[in-house]
Structures are given as structure tokens and as C-alpha cells.
Amino acid sequence: MEIALLKLFLAHILGDFFLQPDSWVAEKERKKLKSDKLYLHIAIHIALIFIVFASFSVWKIAFVVGIGHGIIDAMKLTFQLEKTKRKWFFADQMLHVALIFVCWHNIYEPKLSLSFLQDTKLWLFAVGALFLTTPAAIFIRVIIAKWIPKQPSNQLSTTSLQDAGKFIGIMERLLIYLFVCTNHFEAVGFLLAAKSIFRFGDLKDAHDIKLTEYVLIGTLLSFGIALVVALGVLKINL
């Protein structure tokens, strides 16, 4: 990857996450375009590009990225609502990355190759990872549906985050997939041990054999599916 692109990303990370205190973010959200911190934030991004490149010859890309950054932040501050903050955060970061990439490409005119998209291994790995997200969660839910412990609906809503179990399962399967595909089988054991430790207290306090068995079945199914898919991908790649 071009070192210029890496330097631009470094400047963005430093400016957005290290040199922007929470108090600045709060003031910008409160005063919006009238906040002095917004314009100081833009100036810091421009200065950081000069610093990471150690040259003033990059003034064109520094000012384009800096001003573009300010426009994106202004859009976010103007249109985001309290309930849409999370969506705007990710949209904001995606636009910043796109801006950096477009400016870098137009100024440095690198030779980009998309030949990697023709690599069968890439598509096979992607298909395996995608299957281990929602499709695998649906398979597991269908298989263990008849063993779901009977609990009052009000208890479920107060003792568990919404869809937390689903996302925990997806993350653990993707981690197992990554560990196995990179030949780090020992990490799978650490992951299983860590989950067992966290679950032990809940299951011990619940004093419910059926709940314990239900959790064990779901966990072993999740780990088993991830291992089978990962080993299958490795086998096909051989």
C-alpha cells in the first residue's frame, strides 16, 4: 500500500480519536456550527497532514482533506438526532475514509489492481465467514428451539441485552474461524475457557439444570459449526 495513503489515515486517526477530547465533541453537538472547537478540529487535521508528511508541498491535499473533513462533520452535527448518533458516527467515518481515498487517488494517481478479486481463496474465505454470521445463528436457533427454557418474559427482558446472545455467538464463531484458518488452534481452547469462566457464575446462580444444558448445547453447536466450516475451507484450499 502507498505510504502516502497510510500517512493520511494516520493523520485522521490521530485527529479524530486522540486529539479530540470528549468535551470538544459535547460542545460541537451543543453549539453545532457555532462551536469554535469544530474549526480548531479542522485546523488540527490540516496541521497533522503537514506533520506526518514533514513537508509543506502537500498543502493541496492537506487543505482539501481538512475542509472536506469539516463539511462532513458539519453535516453530521446538523442532521444527527439523539437516536441516530450511532448511525451518523459510522456514516461520518465512512465518508472521511472515502474522502481520504479519493483525494489520495486523484493527487498521486496510483496504479490500482483488482486482480485479487479473482482469487478463489478470497471468495471461499468470505463465504465461510458470511455463513458463520446470521445463517449459522438461524441453524443453531432452529436446532435447539425445542429445548428453550421456560422463563417469564419480564425476567428475560431485564436480565439480558437485546440480541446479545446472537452477537456473542457470531463473534465467537468468527474468532474460531480466524484462529483455525491461521493455524492457531490453541487460541480456540483459550476462547472456550474464557467463555466458560464468564458463564459459570450465571449458571451457578441460576440453579437450573435445564438452562445449563441448553447453554452447553448452544455453545458446543456454535463452536462445532465454526470448526467444521473452518476446517472445510482449509481442506478445499489445500
From TrEMBL:
<feature type="transmembrane region" description="Helical">
    <location>
        <begin position="122"/>
        <end position="144"/>
    </location>
</feature>
<feature type="transmembrane region" description="Helical">
    <location>
        <begin position="214"/>
        <end position="234"/>
    </location>
</feature>
<feature type="transmembrane region" description="Helical">
    <location>
        <begin position="39"/>
        <end position="67"/>
    </location>
</feature>
<dbReference type="Pfam" id="PF11750">
    <property type="entry name" value="DUF3307"/>
</dbReference>
<keyword id="KW-0812">Transmembrane</keyword>
<feature type="transmembrane region" description="Helical">
    <location>
        <begin position="174"/>
        <end position="194"/>
    </location>
</feature>
<keyword id="KW-0472">Membrane</keyword>
<feature type="transmembrane region" description="Helical">
    <location>
        <begin position="88"/>
        <end position="107"/>
    </location>
</feature>
<dbReference type="InterPro" id="IPR021737">
    <property type="entry name" value="Phage_phiKZ_Orf197"/>
</dbReference>
<keyword id="KW-1133">Transmembrane helix</keyword>
<protein>
    <submittedName>
        <fullName>DUF3307 domain-containing protein</fullName>
    </submittedName>
</protein>
